[in-house]
Amino acid sequence: MSAARSVLVLTHRFDPTADKVVEELNNRDVPLFRCDASDFPEQLSVGAELTDGRWTGQLRTALRSLDLSAVSGIYYRRPTNFEFHPGMSENERRWAAIQAQMGFGGLLASLEPWLNHPHQIGYVEYKPVQLRAAVACGLPVPGTLVTNNPGMAHEFVSRVGRAVCKPFGGTGVNDDDGYRQLFSTVVEPQQCDDLNIARTMHLFQEWVPKEYEVRLTVVDGHFFAARIDGESEAARVDWRSDYNALSYQVIKTPNLVRSQVSNLLNGLGLRFAALDFVVTPEGEWWFLECNSNGQWAWIEEETGMPITRALADALDGSQKRDGH
Amino acid sequence: MPVELHERRTGAGLFLSSDHFPLGRAYGHVNTTAESATLARPFGLTLAVRPRRVARLNPADLVYDEQNQVGLIRDGDELIKMGRHTDGQTNTQTNADGQNGPDSDTDWRED
Fold it and tell me: Among the four residues A1, A100, A168, B55, which has the most C-beta atoms within 10 Å?
């Protein structure tokens, strides 16, 4: 690794997951430039010139700078939005935002190497995209219906026998009585007569007999698999719904699954992913979803798997990558 | 340890529209305004439930360490590193009692 090469971390300031990687890189004395899109333009200046076919220049804050031509890795976590001068009008702010998006965002988008490139993150977040890609790689995927048609939903749930309704993404809503979130929820055919299925897209998925679930975190070809057992009824349906009722165990990823997941991530252009599987009583791994910018710090805390180290290796250039 | 309080505009979420950087998707953007359910509520939303465990952070307890580029959180009289204090799940409330739901940075584990 060249001592002059730096890691760029894009995230907001209070992101404890990113902090773990930053601390690891600090311990390695790796040059690091952490910033948020909200730093631009008032606290972050940018200048880059197209020279010999590449962008050269700097990002600069009051305390430090980043040489755009000497970046070993760019970690995209949870950047927020631009913050403009408070004296600007709303129309001026909107115009400036488009320029910032296309200019600052475009400059960053042209750099490499990302972990992961935000365009790939956004693309893979579409569940229909990732489900189709998983099937193409040979991974077993539960029967899935996406629809806003109550009749189709009723027919599908009746046909598969048991099904869940799950969100495509995003978070929940704030109701008068507090915040609510949709987890995977078992639904009966008669529930699907609800005409408000027509109000937006819904995702229904066949229930797969479950021995346990797996959260598989992959970083540049390193596999970190954790078995998750739910001790409550809610956790057995969707472990996200009841974290207090979970137990974890490090397990080995079957060779076939490793191969299929490697092909999946290569095809989707991802170096990092947090994937969820259901494992049947027969030991077969069924793909549920691929989180292209998923959380991983908690699973490291629970299992001791060295995910932080793998991410730092991937970012500081100390690990040779292949095929990405 | 040199630290600097990172100030945000008042009246807005601590993390303004977190992950709204337009290179990717908008993560976890939740409107802080509570509303009543309507008769047209989408079916999936009728299945939504209150999360059983939410770790709440008080924005007043957070400080950014510019030197080391990490977040710090006040624990009594001490400032400790956020990465060692939490497991990565953050749900920072701008309102003290947390009754009005999470602000724009609800960094759920399952993402």
Answer: A100
